[in-house]
Amino acid sequence: MPNSNTELFSPAEIGAVAGVPVKAVYKAIKQRLPPGLMIRRNRQPLLTRWGAICVVIDHEMPKDVPVAVRKQVYAQIKGSTRSRAVGASRGIVRYVVDVKSAAARIDAELAQYRKAMKLIVEDPGVQAGAATFKGTRILVHQIADLLARGTTAAELLEDYPRLTREMISAATIYARAHPRRGRPRKPPWQRRRPLSRRTFSRRVV
User: Fold this and answer.
1) In the predicted model, is pLDDT for residue 182 greater than 60?
2) CA distance 163 to 157
3) Is residue 77 part of a domain?
4) Closest among 128, 150, 148, 147 to 137, alpha carbons compared
5) Rounded to a whole number, what is the distance in angstroms from the first to the last CA of the chain?
């Protein structure tokens, strides 16, 4: 397992891996996480492993838990990352969070994500650097798009003999963790002028 003290994750990656809406990830980063669980590189927020765990805990907490309590919990997690459970009080109410279970779950999900990413490369010499499956020219986002439109895994395996079921599973999580930026490129034929034009009149009976 990579060093959890140095490995960093984008909000989109944690959203895709843990099933947390990206907006909720950004909300937790902006309003609730203490310094040190997130850093910025080129203005992009990146989460540490424990920052990712706090984001997942934040999403799963009941909506009525006050922000002040959430901040107390995350500060304790940051200060003692080996804790099995942490708690915070608000008036007569005591909130307890099972940190160990949350950490185990996110670690398992991150392990699956790392395994999936090993199947994917971005080689400038293949498909202009777009994400493809290792050893093929098959575009990852294309497979993810087909799945989103209802194409079954069996159909994809028939149409793309070099695909595997592991690649198909990896396509979906990769597309969520690495969304396309900007508008999709138009096919080359759409940018060319037509060779000829013909006008037809429609007869109305």
Assistant:
1) no
2) 6
3) yes
4) 128
5) 73
The full length of the chain comes to 205
Tokens 């940018």 label which residue? 191
Return the structure tokens found at 12. 């989109």
Note whether 62 and 151 are same-domain residues.
no
* Residue 24 burial (CB count, 10 A): 16
Q: Among residues 38, 95, 41, 100, which one has the least CA distance to residue 64?
A: 95
Residue 129 included in any domain: yes
Segments forming the whole domain that contains residue 24: 11-113
pTM (predicted TM-score): 0.74
Other CB atoms within a 10 A radius of the CB of residue 86 amount to 19
Q: For residue 4, is it within any domain?
A: no
* Measured distance CA(87)–CA(107) in Å, rounded: 22
Distance of CA 119 to the CA centre of its chain: 16
Residue 116, number of CB atoms within 10 A of its CB: 19
SS3 146: helix
pLDDT digits (tens, 9 = 90+) for 83-142: 688 877 777 788 888 899 999 999 999 999 999 999 999 999 999 999 999 999 999 999
Q: How confident is the model at residue 189 (pLDDT cuts 50, 70, 90)?
A: very low
Q: Residue 178 and residue 141: Cα distance in Å, rounded?
A: 9
Average pLDDT over residues 131-160: 96
